[in-house]
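Q: I'm writing a short methods note and want an example of a predicted protein-small molecule complex. Could you take the sequence and the SMILES for glutathione and return the bound structure as tokens? Please keep the output block clean; save any remarks for afterwards.
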Amino acid sequence: MPDYKLYYFDVRSRGEVIRLLFHLADEKFEDQRIQMEEWGVLKAEMPLGQVPVLEVDGVKIAQTTAILRYLGHQFHRAGTNAVECARLDMMAEVIQEFMSAQGMGSYSRVLFGLIQANKEQFFKEKVLPDVEKYAPLVEKFLLENGNNGLLLGDRETWVDVFAAETFSKIIDYGSPDALDAYPHILALINRVFNHPNIKKYVAQRKPTPA
Ligand SMILES: N[C@@H](CCC(=O)N[C@@H](CS)C(=O)NCC(=O)O)C(=O)O
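A: Understood, no commentary inside the block.
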């Protein structure tokens, strides 16, 4: 395996899903958690001036989904043919759109205090409408795969981890009952976070504001 180094801030936000995928696959990586005072210098060294960035034997890759897709293939946590890969990509795009939607896309800045807003009110008025738009799409896909808590087949892929981490933040940073109308998404979260490798990592993870 190559030498992997992940650059991200010391929070979950967009980068944690990559850490989860490394833990799922039980693969080693250097978890470079950037402090805000270092960011000014490091930003200039990143391919797109943003993180997460994965360095693979010294070569830097940016964009969360590009990193996840690459690692999914490296760790055999992807589709097994081009059509399966495209079906997973379709769901990954849905998750990416959800994360970038109007309310969801701003919510972490509300949680960090970078946007002045009442957290509970913002969640209810801005984030929940995004959940209501995107969760049914994922719910339907999960049901079509046979109601086993996975988006494709019977083994966790990078897109399962991406979806589970994204929706679990709705519960962890929003409201515990926000996904009650989506039992298959709850089953996906349950399945991914009960994988022994992920469970072990999460048990010792420190809480972060987003
Ligand atoms: N489309 C990119 C977005 C990356 C992004 O927004 N990164 C933020 C942190 S979550 C960042 O680097 N912010 C610092 C900056 O832009 O200076 C992805 O999915 O990776």
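A: Remarks, as requested: The domain at 4-76+198-203 is CATH 3.40.30.10 (Glutaredoxin). The beta strands are 4-9, 30-34, 53-56, 59-62.
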